[in-house]
Amino acid sequence: MKKFNKPLLAKNIRFLATQKGVKIGELETEAQVSSGYLSRMSKTEDGSASSSLMDLIVLASSKLDVSVDSLLEIDYQNLTPNETYLDHFFEHIFQETQEGSRSWNYETEEMLQQYPGKYPSPFVIAQYDNLDYVGVAFESKFNPKARLGSGCVYSAINDHLLYIVKTIEDGFFGDEAGYEVYMSDNQKRECDAMVRAFPEDALYSIIDNVFKEASKASHQVKITRNVRTIIDSYLNPPKDEEDLPF
Q1: Which contiguous run of DSSP H or E holds residue 195?
Q2: Backbone phi and psi for residue 97, each to the nearest 5 degrees, phi listed first
Q3: Rounded CA separation 104/214 (Å)
Q4: Non-local CB neighbours of 197 within 8 Å, separated by 6+ positions
Q5: Whole-angstrom distance, CA of residue 211 vs CA of residue 195
Q6: N or C end of the chain: which has fewer CB within 10 A?
Q7: CB of 136 within 8 A of CB of 115?
Q8: Is residue 153 within a helix (H) or strand (E), and if so which, with residue range?
Q9: DSSP code string of 117-134
Q10: Tens digits of per-residue pLDDT, 17-68?
């Protein structure tokens, strides 16, 4: 069975429960585990997950409004204020994606390498030699030596686009894959760098979850909030006044 960092898990549940006003005793009771379960778990070395622990994890994930993977991997108590702010944002985006209410587009590396403008890619720029177009290059706002990975996903956030880009950098033991996140306006006149994340970084797990879920969602049927509202109003039309019982 998968091994868990039980002390970290217990610490995360306690910390987030305090932040959200959730009582540990009530959480343990609802998960049908014995009183003091979290206290005992915080003193336990890493180990396998029992069915009781899995029930507690799933319940805590729902009550504390974080993904299961984030609850298991992120050290919430040591996040900086900016990391906490972005984690809350990505958790919300992840939930919307899972529910199917957020639409995503996926661009492969090959698509991104085409001439800029065919696909919305503000971080991919055209290269010229004596005014002759010779190709495109990935322009990272974090590391000029970063290379484009397998592609990116993007989704509309109000009148902007959120991009999560797979990147590759030279690491001590060879190539290392990570993510870069950008926010751009729809006209691509401005592109703000948000965060760069690799496996050792605090926000990596939630960004990785969003990217993977978004990649799957990009191939599925897309139902925007506007379309959902129209369909709901059609399926559940308001009753005429003559149909009212008074």
Answers
A1: strand 191-197
A2: -65, -45
A3: 6
A4: 178, 179, 180, 181, 203, 204, 207, 208
A5: 14
A6: C
A7: yes
A8: strand 147-157
A9: TSS--TTEEEEEETTEEE
A10: 998 899 998 988 888 888 888 888 877 765 566 778 888 889 999 999 898 8
Q: What share of the chain is helix, strand, coil (3-state, %, to 5)?
A: 40, 25, 35
Q: Are 122 and 112 in contact (CB under 8 A)?
A: no
Instruction: Give phi and psi for 43, each to the nearest 5.
Output: -105, 5
CA-to-CA separations, 135 to 58, 125, 141, 191, 237, in angstroms, rounded: 48, 9, 19, 21, 54
Identify the band that residue 240 occupies on the pLDDT scale cut at 50, 70 and 90.
Answer: low
Closest CA to 46 of 85, 20, 72: 72
Measure the CA–CA gap between 244 and 246, rounded to whole angstroms: 6
Residue type at position 132: D
Task: Kindly list the distances between the CA atom of residue 60 and the CA atoms of 18, 83, 236, in Å, as whole numbers in the listed order.
Answer: 12, 21, 34
Neighbours of 149 (CB within 10 A): 19
Q: Which residues contact 230 (CB under 8 A, 6 or more apart)?
A: none
pLDDT tops 60 at residue 215: yes
**pLDDT score of 135:** 80
Rg of the chain over Cα atoms, rounded to whole angstroms, equals 22
Contact 73/11 with Cβ under 8 angstroms? Answer: no
Token pair listed for 221: 């049927």
